[in-house]
């Protein structure tokens, strides 16, 4: 959860200004929605409050992906109602219909909430805020930094390139909540990237539901950036982001990419160092029959060959992925195929969920739902294999010198610090524990790069000596 206590927010305003408390739950896509709303609030002169009781109103940005997330969101709304009483709800859960035939689940469970919107609804949220806490007369526009307000640390930021999804994976209800793919205009996306780099961002994390599908909905329409035509297409976007990042000495990292043939060209950009040789591909499974039951996109039989070909072009490539164990109907033989895939594909970082039914998902009707113990047991077996692969790959880094982005460095790193290499995305992968530098003159600074020699591994992490 990202509560409003984040240090990136501007100082508390004078008492006369209305203040809003904000709770942000869910994935990076939801986080960018939160940033847009907070930016707008600040632009209009609202202050932000660190506590529910000290605020004039609370906005809760919810997640509705799995049942645990739904519960967390409903609990947060209940808490805000109890402590403050004036609550507006936005986000994925806001789009979920009620069980008793009502328009939405939230108003059925918490009838006292003042307004409910779905995701990606900054204007609707602002309209609801205006109705219940009128706009201040003299907006403090100057308090808004040009890049907006960010909930992530100053040196990395998520860049959302599209909303929604054209796929219909049977375990997922995101398309029913967020709708079909809508790509943001390429000029807007590149403009936002430039503002973020100018504000000091050193790592840009590109997110969407399907980054490789960028522009499909607008037939790769030609947009404009910097006075020149540019197509709304993944490759063109990556080229321009790579050029921008080079100007500012920053990294670009891609998330949620599917192994479509056109991604081959993006690997060339990685091999030439324009964007990080890192791909986050949510494979979910490897057996063709399970993938078919899941209705997964980009699941040609040649996935393994494609990965091998990518690694030949770009040997540094790191692949992170997520998988589901115990999907309905999964046989032992199908599960074994998944284990073989993780070994053969040499997945660098893997996460695995035991299959968990999501209300409203069509996978709930698939025959052969497996007992919870079987799903959990397969997840544990999967993780044992995945960790073996991952540990062996990490071990091979010992002795190498890597570029590390510093995330924490108390006392300018005199006692060491924490950073990440190109192989580690923030919050989901490992870290690099930085030892105190041997040279007394060497300092570590948050948001800056340092070179470091890898000296050991520690579970999912590396230990390195800054040089
Ligand atoms: S690709 Fe599948 S899992 Fe991902 S958002 Fe679209 S429907 Fe859901």
UniProtKB/TrEMBL annotation:
All copies of domain MTTase N-terminal, residue ranges: 18-134
Pfam families on file: Radical_SAM, TRAM_2, UPF0004
Record-annotated Radical SAM core domain positions: 151-392
InterPro entries with a match to the protein in the record: Elp3/MiaA/NifB-like_rSAM, Methylthiotransferase, Methylthiotransferase_CS, Methylthiotransferase_N, Methylthiotransferase_N_sf, NA-bd_OB-fold, Ribosomal_uS12_MeSTrfase_RimO, rSAM
Amino acids binding [4Fe-4S] cluster 2: 165, 169, 172
Any one of the GO CC terms: ribosome
Keyword set, alphabetical order: 4Fe-4S, Cytoplasm, Iron, Iron-sulfur, Metal-binding, Ribonucleoprotein, Ribosomal protein, S-adenosyl-L-methionine, Transferase
Main location: cytoplasm
Entry's Gene Ontology molecular function annotations: 4 iron, 4 sulfur cluster binding; aspartic acid methylthiotransferase activity; metal ion binding; protein methylthiotransferase activity
Cofactor: [4Fe-4S] cluster
UniProt feature coiled coil, ranges: none
Transmembrane segments: none
Comment on bound cofactor: Binds 2 [4Fe-4S] clusters. One cluster is coordinated with 3 cysteines and an exchangeable S-adenosyl-L-methionine.
Catalytic EC class: transferase
A GO BP entry: tRNA modification
Keyword Iron-sulfur annotated: yes
Reactions the enzyme catalyzes: L-aspartate(89)-[ribosomal protein uS12]-hydrogen + (sulfur carrier)-SH + AH2 + 2 S-adenosyl-L-methionine = 3-methylsulfanyl-L-aspartate(89)-[ribosomal protein uS12]-hydrogen + (sulfur carrier)-H + 5'-deoxyadenosine + L-methionine + A + S-adenosyl-L-homocysteine + 2 H(+)
The enzyme's E.C. designation: 2.8.4.4
Subcellular location per the Swiss-Prot or TrEMBL entry: Cytoplasm
Binding residues annotated for [4Fe-4S] cluster 1, in chain numbering: 27, 63, 92
Record's function text: Catalyzes the methylthiolation of an aspartic acid residue of ribosomal protein uS12.
Family label: Belongs to the methylthiotransferase family. RimO subfamily.
Name this protein carries in UniProt: Ribosomal protein uS12 methylthiotransferase RimO
Organism: Scleromatobacter humisilvae
């Amino acid at each position: 959860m990202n509560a409003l206590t984040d240090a990136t927010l501007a100082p508390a305003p004078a008492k006369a200004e209305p203040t809003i408390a904000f709770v942000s739950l869910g994935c990076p896509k939801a986080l960018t929605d939160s940033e847009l709303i907070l930016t707008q609030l600040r632009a209009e002169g609202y202050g932000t409050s660190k506590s529910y009781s000290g605020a004039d109103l609370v906005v809760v940005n919810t997640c509705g992906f799995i049942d645990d997330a739904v519960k967390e969101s409903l609990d947060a709304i209940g808490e805000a109602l109890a402590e403050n009483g004036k609550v507006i709800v936005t986000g994925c859960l806001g789009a979920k219909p009620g069980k008793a035939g009502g328009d939405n689940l939230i108003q059925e469970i918490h009838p006292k909430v003042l307004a409910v919107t779905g995701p990606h609804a900054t204007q609707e949220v602002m309209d609801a805020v205006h109705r219940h806490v009128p706009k201040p007369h003299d907006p403090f526009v100057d308090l808004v930094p040009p890049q907006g307000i960010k909930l992530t640390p100053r040196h990395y930021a998520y860049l959302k390139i599209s909303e929604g999804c054209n796929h219909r994976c049977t375990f997922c209800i995101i398309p029913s909540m967020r709708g079909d793919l809508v790509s943001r205009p390429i000029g807007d996306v590149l403009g936002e990237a430039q503002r973020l780099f100018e504000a000091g961002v050193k790592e840009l994390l590109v997110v969407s539901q399907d980054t490789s599908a960028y522009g499909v909905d607008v037939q790769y329409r030609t947009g404009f950036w910097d006075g020149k035509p540019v197509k709304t297409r993944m490759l063109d976007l990556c080229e321009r982001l790579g050029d921008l990042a080079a100007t500012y000495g920053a990294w670009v990292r891609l998330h949620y990419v599917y192994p479509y043939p056109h991604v081959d060209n993006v690997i060339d950009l990685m091999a030439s160092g324009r964007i990080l040789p890192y791909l986050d591909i949510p494979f979910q499974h490897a057996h063709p029959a399970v993938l078919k039951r899941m209705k997964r996109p980009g699941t040609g039989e040649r996935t393994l060959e494609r990965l091998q070909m990518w690694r030949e072009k770009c040997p540094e490539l790191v692949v992170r992925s997520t998988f589901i164990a115990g999907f309905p109907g999964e046989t032992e033989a199908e599960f074994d195929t998944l284990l073989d895939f993780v070994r053969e594909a040499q997945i660098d970082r893997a996460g695995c969920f035991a299959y968990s039914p999501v209300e409203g998902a069509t996978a709930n009707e698939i025959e052969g739902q497996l007992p919870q113990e079987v799903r959990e047991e397969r997840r544990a077996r999967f993780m044992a294999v995945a960790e073996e692969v991952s540990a062996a790959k990490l071990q091979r880094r010992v002795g190498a010198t890597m570029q590390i982005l510093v995330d924490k460095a108390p006392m300018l790193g005199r006692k060491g610090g924490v950073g990440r290499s190109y192989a580690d995305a923030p919050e989901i992968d490992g870290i690099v524990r930085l030892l105190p530098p041997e040279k007394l003159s060497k300092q570590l600074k948050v948001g800056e790069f340092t070179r470091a020699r890898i000296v050991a591994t520690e579970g999912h992490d590396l230990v390195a000596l800054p040089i």
